[in-house]
Write a structure and sequence with these properties.
Layout lengths: L11 E5 L2 E6 L8 E5 L10 H9 L3 E5 L18 H15 L8 E6 L1 H11 L8 E5 L11 H13 L4 E3 L4 H4 L3 H9 L6 E3 H17 L7 E6 L7 H8 L5 E6 L12 H13 L2
Parallel strand pairs: 3-4, 3-5, 5-6, 6-9, 9-10
Antiparallel strand pairs: 1-2, 2-4, 7-8
C-alpha cells in the first residue's frame, strides 16, 4: 500500500452498554468484522484512517471509546477493575457480530492499552470467540521511566484514594515522527494527560497476568511493534509474543508508539491488510 487512504467518517454511531461506538461498513456484504480498541488517554475517533484500511479490505469495523475515555462516561482514565474493560470488549464483539453474516469471522485489533485489553481477554478463563487478533504497540511493560516512589504511591493511593490523578507523561514526540500527527494529538480535546492510581495498579496487574498466561492464547495473533517505542517496552512485547503459539511478530524499525500514525504508516497498513486477507 503505497498511498495513504486518509480518514473516513463512520457509517453510524451508537451507544453499546453505555459506551460510545462507531461502525464502518464496506460496499456489499462484509467479509467479516474488526473490533478496534484504542489506547490509553485517547479515543476511537483517532482511528478513522485505520478503519478506511479495514473497509478497503472488504471488512466492517466497530470502534468504541473505552470507559473513562472519549465520549464514553466515567472519570478520565479511571477503572475500578481491569476485568471491566474485558466485559466491555465482549459487549462490543456481540454488537459487531450483528453487522455481518452469522458465519463471518470476527478479528480483534488493539493499540497499546487496547492491545493489553485484547490480550488480557484472550488469556482469560472466558476468552472471546474470534478468528484472530492484531495487536499494535502492546502496553505490556512500560519503558517510560517511572520513579519507584511514584509506583509505591500508586499502590497506596489505589486503596485509599483510587481516583488520585498524576501526569501520565505522554508527549506527542513519544508517539510519532509525523509532525502533523503530533499537532493533531495536542489539539484534540478528547485526549487527556493524567493517569489515576487505580488504573495504574490495575493495568500493571493485567500486564503480569498476560505474561503469566500468554500460552493460553490459541488464536493467531499479528504483532505490529514500533522498535523505537519510548512508551511501551518493545522487549516485553517480544517476550510475551514468544509465549503465544502462532504469533507473527513484525519489528517495525524506526517507528515510535503510534505505528498507525507514523510517517511510514503505509507499511503498517499493508501488514494490517495482509493479516485480514489471511484471517
Amino acid at each position: 500500500m503505497s498511498e495513504l487512504p486518509g480518514p473516513i467518517r463512520p457509517t453510524s454511531t451508537q451507544t453499546i452498554g453505555g459506551l460510545y461506538a462507531e461502525t464502518f461498513l464496506p460496499t456489499g456484504t462484509p467479509k467479516g468484522v474488526v473490533v478496534v480498541t484504542h489506547g490509553y488517554a485517547e479515543h476511537c475517533g483517532r482511528y478513522h484512517e485505520v478503519c478506511h484500511v479495514i473497509v478497503n479490505a472488504g471488512w466492517a469495523a466497530l470502534t468504541y471509546d473505552c470507559r473513562g475515555h472519549g465520549k464514553s462516561p466515567g472519570p478520565r482514565g479511571f477503572i475500578d477493575r481491569f476485568d471491566t474493560y474485558a466485559t466491555d470488549l465482549h459487549a462490543m464483539i456481540a454488537a459487531a457480530k450483528k453487522l455481518v453474516p452469522e458465519t463471518a469471522p470476527v478479528v480483534l485489533l488493539g493499540h497499546s492499552h487496547g492491545s493489553l485489553i485484547t490480550l488480557y481477554a484472550l488469556a482469560s478463563d472466558n476468552p472471546p470467540k474470534v478468528r484472530s487478533a492484531i495487536v499494535a504497540s502492546p502496553y505490556l511493560g512500560i519503558k517510560l521511566a517511572v520513579p519507584a516512589w511514584k509506583k509505591l504511591l500508586a499502590r497506596v493511593a489505589s486503596r485509599v484514594a483510587p481516583r488520585l490523578n498524576q501526569p501520565n507523561g505522554i508527549k506527542a514526540e513519544h508517539l510519532t515522527d509525523d509532525l502533523a500527527k503530533r499537532a493533531e494529538h495536542d489539539a484534540d480535546p478528547l485526549n487527556f494527560a493524567t493517569a489515576s492510581a487505580r488504573w495504574f495498579v490495575e493495568s500493571s496487574d493485567a500486564q503480569d497476568f498476560v505474561l503469566a498466561h500468554a500460552d493460553r492464547i490459541t488464536v493467531p495473533t499479528t504483532w505490529l511493534v514500533g522498535a523505537n517505542d519510548p512508551l511501551a517496552n518493545p522487549a516485553q512485547s517480544r517476550t510475551v509474543a514468544n509465549k503465544v503459539k502462532g504469533a507473527t511478530y513484525h519489528d517495525l524499525v524506526g517507528m515510535k508508539h503510534e505505528v498507525f500514525n507514523e510517517v511510514e504508516r503505509g507499511k503498517v497498513f499493508a501488514e494490517l491488510a495482509r493479516a485480514l486477507a489471511t484471517a
